[in-house]
Protein: Methylglyoxal synthase
Amino acid sequence: MNIAFIAHDRKKDEMVNFVIAYEMAFEGHTLYSTGTTGTRIMEQTKLSIHRFMSGPLGGDQQIGAMVAQNEMDLILFFRDPLMAQPHEPDIIALLRLCDVQGIPVATNVATGEILVRALQRGDFGWRELVHKYKPGE
Structure:
C-alpha cells in the first residue's frame, strides 16, 4: 500500500511519535511524505520514505497528484486547526481529492490509530480491488 505522512509544524513531534509507535505496521509499505516531516520520521525510525517538497512549497500538491491518479491508499495528515496555514487552499484541495477518490485520511492521532489498526488487521483489501479495476478503464 502507498501511505503518506503530512504534519503541520506544531504537529510534527506528534507525527514522529505516532510513527515510532506503529513503525512495524508501516514496514513493507511504500511510504511518502512532505519534506521536513519525512526527514524527521526517518531520523527516528528505520523506515525509508520518499520525500516530496515541503508542504508550503508544493509537497501537498505532489501527494495530491498521486491521489488524483488513485495511486495513494492512506494519508495521515496531522493538521493544526488552531494555526492559519499560508497554503490552506492546497490543503483543502488535497482533502477534497481524498473525498473524490475515497482515500482514507486521518487528520489527528485518534483517527490515525483507528486507520493504522485497520491496516494491521488487513482491512484495506478493498484498495487492492480499486487498483486492479480502475474506473474508466
